[in-house]
C-alpha cells in the first residue's frame, strides 16, 4: 500500500509563507516554522 504524501514544500501550517494572514488585517508570524516557511522534519 502506497502512502500518499500530502505534504507540500514548506510548513503545513502557513503553506510555506512563514506567516498567517489575519482576517482582521495584518499578519502573524507562524510559530511552527518561526517565519521561515520551512517544514520541520
Ligand atoms: Zn509555518
What does this structure look like?
With 41 residues, the protein is mostly beta strands. The protein has one domain. It has no helices and two strands. The chain has a two-stranded antiparallel sheet with strand order 1-2. Strand 1 and strand 2 (27-29) form a beta hairpin. It is elongated.
User: Hey, roughly how much beta strand do the residues contain?
Assistant: 5-15%
The kinds of small molecule bound in this structure are: zinc ion
* Biggest pleated-sheet summary: 2 strands, antiparallel
Indicate the radius of gyration in whole angstroms. Answer: 12 Å
Strand order, main sheet: write it out: 1-2
Number of E strands: 2
Structural category is mainly beta
Summed up, the helix count is: 0
Mean of residue pLDDT values: 84
Count of the domains: 1
**Helix and strand element order:** EE
List keywords for this structure.
single chain; 41 residues; mainly beta; two-stranded antiparallel sheet; 2 strands; elongated; binds zinc ion
Offer a quick outline of the entry:
The protein is mainly beta. The chain has strands spanning 19-21, 27-29.
Could you give the topology of this structure?
Elements: E1 19-21, E2 27-29
Antiparallel strand pairs: 1-2
The chain binds zinc ion.
Amino acid at each position: 500500500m502506497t502512502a500518499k504524501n500530502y505534504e507540500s514544500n514548506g510548513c503545513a501550517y502557513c503553506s510555506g509563507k512563514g506567516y498567517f494572514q489575519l482576517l482582521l488585517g495584518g499578519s502573524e508570524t507562524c510559530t511552527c516554522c518561526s517565519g521561515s516557511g520551512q517544514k520541520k522534519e
